[in-house]
Amino acid sequence: MNNLNFKKPFLRLILFALISGLSAACTDLEPELYSDLTTKNAYNSESDIEAALTGTYASLNPYPGDAYLYYAGYLMMLTDYNTDIGFSTAAGDPTKHSNFTYDDNSRYLRLNWQNMYKVISNANMLLSKISGIEIEEDKKNEIIAQARFLRALSYRDLTDSWGAVPLITEPDNPTESDNVPLSSVSEVDAQIIEDCEFAISHLPEKWAPELGISRATKGAALTLLGKVYMRNHNYEKAKEYIDEVLDLRAKGVYSLNPDFKDEWSGDNKIDMGLIFGILHEAAQNGGEITNHFGPQDHPEIENRWQYYAVSLPFWRKYSEMDPRKEFYYYNYEGASPRDPNTSHGFYYMMPDIGQTVPPSDTVKLLRNVATKKYSYEMISDSYLDGRTIQIFRLADVILAKAEIENELNGPSAALPYINEIRTRAGAPAYGESGFSIPTTKDEMVDALVNERGYELVFEYKRKADLIRLGKYVEVSNEYLKKRGMQPIVTDNLKYFPYPLEEARNHKEMSAENSSRIP
């Protein structure tokens, strides 16, 4: 079932789609393979439920062996790309998203929507069937907790992107589910909170190695719930859960890697700062993340597409004293010869601001820049690689703590946390020469907007961060003006238009869309 064709709206999808490969999010959960898997014969034993759980994890990273959907890459177009970070030179929807000229027919809207609801559908089916299966009670609760965490994560992503969405918690007959009313963000959040609280109560801090190394944990559920409360600006509640994650750090469950680059090394699949992520093995369930994010024509990382690339205005924001500015590919000689008469490639040069003409015909000026996050110290240069995709990590939580403290107690309380991330990266701390300490809450918000961008670039965070911190319109329009474009971003673009195929069958969605299209 790895090649499901999603041509119909999500509510008509088969609600249970078991991925019959090794789960990219759960490498030690071996599914039993079925020749005729249906909702009638798929839930007869504990092993059936384990297989269903594997399928639910795998839906975060669809189509193992050729993965690029949802968290394997496509989510980037709904997060970092529609901000000051992303800039694409690829034709079609990538350029439309980076230019804020997308419409409701974008493949990234349609496929992300479908895959988010695929996770939810799989979780709902598992949750509806597990009560009838004989499983030891503690283990049953652990399975339920994982399914509910995955459902909560997908609903968080849906509401970040679209706001009000259909809230579906039962495996309803898809042929009878047309025009399900939209539920408000607060209604969906109530379900997310309930799911996360159950997960926190029943998930372990760590899993035994033989049970899997990338299952959801208590720390993952705490992080998700804390960030949902932050989205709602309920910083008092957010503090409770983010502090619990930091307590796990104090216990040694998590630790911050001394070298920020090593978090992304190909031979460091499970960094101690990783809270929840998707693991790949090149020979088993390799993904395409390096292809999409890697540089074009680079001598070390050859034949990549740079489909998702960072804008030059954002890259230039980094201080020259910040080593993270160097964690990109630029100023290099290409691997491919320029022509049949030479063994040398073009030189890919970072232009000066305003420079449009290369200094010679052997130089090409970069229009964007590729991050090293998804290709650093590769073990294999194969088409499908073993790169880890980090969904939640400790550095994000520490910056969340800085934001919470700023809101509750002011900038001086936030300062140690933001400086911890800067110091770990080798960048000057606020308070050192040339980097004055933010003295008001607003100044600290500006510092956090920048720091979250520098540290978390291309980690599916930027749009939600800018919206939560009240900077989405300002930062996005400033970016467009730097590119010589009209500042067209308004509060109406906080949420995307509903996918065209869904809106055609849903009056509420159709009514909303006209105001959400740039």
TrEMBL record:
* RagB/SusD domain residues: 315-483
Q: Where are the TPR repeats?
A: 219-252
Domain of life of the native organism: Bacteria
The record's family statement is: Belongs to the SusD family.
Q: Which residues form the signal peptide?
A: 1-24
* Pfam families assigned to the protein according to its UniProt record, in alphabetical order: SusD-like_3 (PF14322), SusD_RagB (PF07980)
Asked whether the keyword Protein transport is assigned, the reply is: no
In terms of InterPro entries, this protein maps to: SusD-like_N (IPR033985), SusD_RagB_dom (IPR012944), TPR-like_helical_dom_sf (IPR011990), TPR_rpt (IPR019734)
- Name-wise, this protein is Starch-binding associating with outer membrane
Keywords of the record, alphabetical order, are: Cell outer membrane, Membrane, Signal, TPR repeat
Q: Would the keyword Signal turn up in this protein's UniProt record? A: yes
- Where is this chain's protein located in or outside the cell? Cell outer membrane
Primary residence: membrane
User: Which cellular component appears as one GO term in the record?
Assistant: cell outer membrane
Which residues does the UniProt record annotate as the domain SusD-like N-terminal?
Answer: 41-230
